Amino acid sequence: MAKTLRTSGDYTIKTGSGSGGSNTVFLNSKFTRVLGDLVVEGTRTELNTSTLTIEDQFLTVNKNNSTADTEDAGIFFERGSENNAVFYWDAGNDEFQLGTTTNVPSDTAITNITLANLKVADPTSAEHAASKSYVDSQVGGASAVGDLFITGSTIATPSNADLTLTPGGTGAVDMGAIRIRDNHIEGTRSNDDILIQPAGTGAVVIQDVLTFEANASTPTASAITKIYSKTAAGGGTGVFFNNSSVNSGTEDELISKKKATAIAIALG
Q1: Bridge partners of residue 99, in order along the sequence
Q2: Beta partners for residue 185, in sequence order
Q3: Every domain of the chain and the residues it spans
Q4: What is the edge-to-edge ordering of all strands in the sheet holding 252-253?
């Protein structure tokens, strides 16, 4: 049967051994105060307060999970008629997630989430999360280092600005099958040609000395002209060519002006 206890002053309950008790529960017009541990056993605890103050340094959620990391756990934020917001540990992906969900706190797992933005300050350490504005300022904005813009697969600089790639030490820059190391341009695929091909009606222009540095063996003739250096012969230049459409593909040597003059005089 129901029973009501009324008192005109504070009401104190002493618990524990001895006449004075070791734990005390105080009830007055403003507070219910428990001196000692408070254990609430049930399936639901609800606090209808406007302010909750917790003295503990750490909070434990999902306390009774004694198995491997297979259970989601976190904090829900009610948003009125909108979907709940949630910040939780996603056990399936081993990561924290933040967003909105149609799940409710009584669910055992977060089964759907719409990720939300997280606003952070610019990092001051390598381990800090970075804001979008900070990343943009480093690699893609007007105040970026070198005004470098990266859009998709395109790296660009403002008008008339140089783009400098500087590997450390003896490092190289690789682009496809081309490697640039110091002042060398090398191929990286064995037996592949290196092609220089202008667009449209453009031409390949060499504005300084073109040097054939090493003596080459005679290449196989094809329907294109191949120019190479060998030990000088009758032509006196050491610059040879062959083409399968010229002289049946037999190599020939470019003749020097001095040799041509001598031959012309000898032939009268």
Answers
A1: 86, 115
A2: 180
A3: 9-36, 73-115, 124-161, 205-268
A4: 226-229, 239-242, 252-253
Q: Is 34 helix (H, G, I), strand (E, B) or coil?
A: strand
Backbone angles phi, psi at 23, to 5 degrees: -125, 150
pLDDT given for residue 18 in this prediction? 57
Name the pTM for this structure. 0.52
Give all strands (DSSP E) within the chain, no chain letters. Answer: 11-15, 23-27, 32-35, 73-79, 82-90, 95-101, 114-115, 149-151, 154-156, 173-175, 178-181, 184-187, 226-229, 239-242, 252-253
Contacts 24+ apart (CB under 8 A), 91-97: 94/69
The residue among 47, 97, 51, 99 whose CA lies nearest residue 72 is 97
Phi, psi of 79 (to 5 degrees): -130, 35
Closest CA to 176 of 165, 164, 187: 187
Q: What are the 10-residue block averages of pLDDT along the chain, 268 residues in total?
A: 74 66 70 78 86 91 83 94 96 95 93 95 91 74 56 78 85 92 92 91 93 84 91 92 92 92 84
What CA–CA distance (Å, rounded) separates 103 from 109? 8
The H-or-E segment that residue 109 falls in is none
Neighbours of 90 (CB within 10 A): 15
Asked if 167 and 173 count as a contact pair (C-beta separation under 8 A), the reply is yes
Tens of pLDDT along 58-91? 999 998 887 778 899 999 999 999 999 999 999 9
Contact status, residue 62 vs residue 76, Cβ threshold 8 Å: no
Q: pLDDT digit string (tens) for 52-67?
A: 899 999 999 998 887 7
